[in-house]
Specification:
alpha/beta, Alpha/beta knot, Trp Operon Repressor, Chain A, 2 domains, 10 helices, tRNA_m1G_MeTrfase_C_sf, Alpha/beta_knot_MTases
Length: 248
């Protein structure tokens, strides 16, 4: 999986490329993160990438030409390597809320370019001419698109076969089957008079899976009832699931 990220702060991405699961995936060639600074595509001495907004108002607006020249540079690099350029994604408050399904969709595309905005906004003409999709982490505002981009990359990289030590980990994550994950326990068996559930100690795999499914349903109904409605609408709940939910 190839990512290209247009950012004024490429140093921030070392948190993704040099640490943990994502760092190991990059080291092993399962994923690559290519960083592009629009200032490198500016011809003026000050490397200007922003200016005041027409019509007034607070904050600065990222200019079209430095961003567009950066996109052209990325596409030239793709052409030189025989890569078909994937979608260009702007991280923006008005974007679609990122989800596990979107992470899977991104992985299937093979490559994606993130535009990490800064300042007050990005010139609308750049968006209309170049952007294929817009994504958001939620209904809140952060200082730039770098952290959302890294979070989304992390979610995608986890899904690459071989990225995790145990391939089953990604399959059993929350949201994969439309529900929250079940509770987990490890040693010691007793901690401050709190016990590990007996079913997890018995070694009966069918009973364990049954318990985990019910706990997943129970937790989702209590914390995210909206996911139960969505799972039901998408046919992800069995008759046995529905019977158990009625007992709750």
């Amino acid at each position: 999986m190839r990512f290209d990220a247009v950012t004024l702060f490429p140093e921030m991405f070392t948190a993704l490329t040099q640490w943990g699961v994502t760092g190991r995936a990059c080291e092993r060639g399962l994923a690559s993160v290519n960083l592009w600074n629009p200032r490198d595509f500016c011809s003026d001495p000050r490397k200007t990438v922003d200016d005041r907004a027409y019509g007034g108002g607070p904050g600065m607006v990222m200019m079209v030409k430095p961003l567009e020249d950066t996109i052209h540079g990325i596409k030239d690099a793709h052409d030189a390597q025989g890569i078909i350029s994937g979608p260009i994604c702007l991280l923006a408050p008005q974007g679609e809320i990122f989800s596990q399904k979107i992470a899977s969709d991104i992985l299937s595309r093979g490559n994606l370019t993130f535009i990490c905005g800064r300042y007050e906004a990005v010139d609308q003409r750049f968006i209309e001419r170049n952007v294929d999709l817009q994504l958001s982490m939620g209904d809140f505002v952060v200082s730039g698109g770098e952290l959302p981009a890294m979070t989304m990359m992390d979610a995608v990289i986890r899904l690459i076969p071989g990225a995790l030590g145990d391939g089953e980990s990604a399959v059993q994550d929350s949201f994969i089957n439309g529900l929250l994950d079940h509770p987990h326990y490890t040693r010691p068996e007793i901690y401050e008079n709190l016990l590990v559930p007996d079913v997890l100690l018995g070694g009966h795999h069918a009973k364990i899976e049954h318990w985990r499914r019910q706990k997943s349903l129970e937790l989702t109904l209590r914390l995210r009832p909206d996911l139960i409605k969505s799972a039901r609408a998408n046919g992800l709940l069995s008759r046995e699931d529905e019977q158990f939910l009625r007992t709750l």
